[in-house]
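Entry:
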Amino acid sequence: MADVARSSPPSTARSAVPSTVSSAALVAVGGTLGVTVRALLEGAFPAAPGGWPWTTTAINVTGSLLLGLLLTALARRGPDAGRRRAVRLGVGTGVIGGYTTYSTFVLEVERLVTGGAVVTGVAYALVSVVLGVAAAVLGVVLAGGRAGARGQAAHDPDALVEERARPGDGPRAGEVRP
């Protein structure tokens, strides 16, 4: 009887805190790696004063491509849980989030514009955004996303996962099948 009284509460009551801490740790470790790679690249290939920031452009475009590939591949394999969630957090939010850089991009646009290279600054801003979106879409396509699933996913994040369910698959969490 004494052993029953000393038993710990069900793990579900305590699972939220460790899950949050471990998720934050995945993002932090991945982010450290991504930021380190970006800093090494930016240091090795700095932009010339008043010139196009090619390194940041390449970093943000390749990061967009990789994120499109990763998120689509993960979504096609099932719900955002377990290992898929850990990979999304560690690699997607952490590594790729640390690798890409909106703050450096904005700072470079500001420096170009205030330094007198207004046309270059505006062109850099526009080209970077367009190429980033195009690279993300390419990543989705390369990972096997379809145009119909992408369009529906814009309104329903679970649409890509549900559309990829095979007839022999059982229903996924929250999914109702006829």
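Residues 1-8, 147-178 have pLDDT under 50 and may be disordered.
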